[in-house]
Amino acid sequence: MISCSQATKQLWDYVEGAVDGAQRRVIEEHLSVCRRCCGEVEFAEELRGFLAAHGDTDLPEEVKVRLTSFLDEL
Ligand SMILES: [Zn+2]
Q1: Where are the chain's structural domains?
Q2: Ligand 1 center–CA 14 separation, angstroms
Q3: The pTM of the whole model exceeds 0.85
Q4: Mean pLDDT across the stretch 5-15?
Q5: Which of 11, 20, 41, 44 has its CA 20 to 30 A from that of 51?
Q6: How many Å lie between the centroid of ligand 1 and the Cα of residue 35?
Protein backbone atom coordinates (compact mmCIF):
# COMPACT_ATOMS: atom_id res chain seq x y z
CA MET A 1 0.00 0.00 0.00
CA ILE A 2 1.37 3.42 -0.94
CA SER A 3 1.16 6.38 1.43
CA CYS A 4 -1.17 9.36 1.12
CA SER A 5 1.71 11.57 0.02
CA GLN A 6 2.71 9.08 -2.65
CA ALA A 7 -0.87 8.80 -3.84
CA THR A 8 -1.26 12.57 -3.96
CA LYS A 9 1.92 12.97 -5.99
CA GLN A 10 0.49 10.59 -8.59
CA LEU A 11 -3.00 12.00 -8.39
CA TRP A 12 -2.61 14.51 -11.19
CA ASP A 13 -1.25 11.93 -13.60
CA TYR A 14 -4.07 9.65 -12.55
CA VAL A 15 -6.72 12.28 -13.24
CA GLU A 16 -5.04 13.13 -16.54
CA GLY A 17 -5.07 9.46 -17.51
CA ALA A 18 -1.28 9.53 -17.79
CA VAL A 19 -0.68 6.49 -15.58
CA ASP A 20 -0.36 2.93 -16.80
CA GLY A 21 -2.61 0.11 -15.67
CA ALA A 22 -0.39 -0.95 -12.78
CA GLN A 23 -0.11 2.59 -11.42
CA ARG A 24 -3.84 3.09 -11.76
CA ARG A 25 -4.58 -0.03 -9.71
CA VAL A 26 -2.17 1.04 -6.97
CA ILE A 27 -3.72 4.50 -6.76
CA GLU A 28 -7.29 3.18 -6.85
CA GLU A 29 -6.42 0.68 -4.12
CA HIS A 30 -5.30 3.56 -1.93
CA LEU A 31 -8.30 5.72 -2.81
CA SER A 32 -10.65 2.89 -1.88
CA VAL A 33 -9.45 3.03 1.72
CA CYS A 34 -8.57 6.72 2.08
CA ARG A 35 -11.35 9.27 2.45
CA ARG A 36 -8.95 12.18 2.39
CA CYS A 37 -7.52 11.22 -0.97
CA CYS A 38 -10.98 10.47 -2.37
CA GLY A 39 -11.84 14.09 -1.62
CA GLU A 40 -8.71 15.14 -3.44
CA VAL A 41 -9.71 13.13 -6.48
CA GLU A 42 -13.08 14.86 -6.63
CA PHE A 43 -11.32 18.18 -6.45
CA ALA A 44 -8.79 17.16 -9.04
CA GLU A 45 -11.57 16.12 -11.39
CA GLU A 46 -13.10 19.57 -11.03
CA LEU A 47 -9.76 21.07 -11.95
CA ARG A 48 -9.56 18.73 -14.91
CA GLY A 49 -12.97 19.96 -16.04
CA PHE A 50 -11.71 23.52 -15.76
CA LEU A 51 -8.67 22.66 -17.83
CA ALA A 52 -10.80 20.95 -20.45
CA ALA A 53 -13.22 23.87 -20.63
CA HIS A 54 -10.48 26.45 -21.14
CA GLY A 55 -8.25 24.39 -23.37
CA ASP A 56 -4.58 23.65 -23.06
CA THR A 57 -3.55 26.67 -25.09
CA ASP A 58 -5.08 29.05 -22.55
CA LEU A 59 -3.17 27.53 -19.67
CA PRO A 60 0.53 28.30 -19.35
CA GLU A 61 2.74 25.55 -18.02
CA GLU A 62 3.26 27.73 -14.95
CA VAL A 63 -0.43 27.46 -14.11
CA LYS A 64 -0.43 23.70 -14.47
CA VAL A 65 2.61 23.47 -12.20
CA ARG A 66 0.85 25.67 -9.65
CA LEU A 67 -2.30 23.54 -9.75
CA THR A 68 -0.23 20.42 -9.33
CA SER A 69 1.55 21.92 -6.32
CA PHE A 70 -1.79 22.91 -4.88
CA LEU A 71 -3.00 19.34 -5.17
CA ASP A 72 0.15 18.17 -3.42
CA GLU A 73 -0.67 20.40 -0.47
CA LEU A 74 -4.24 19.22 -0.01
ZN1 LIG B 1 -4.74 8.71 1.21
Answers
A1: 4-73
A2: 14
A3: no
A4: 81
A5: 20
A6: 7
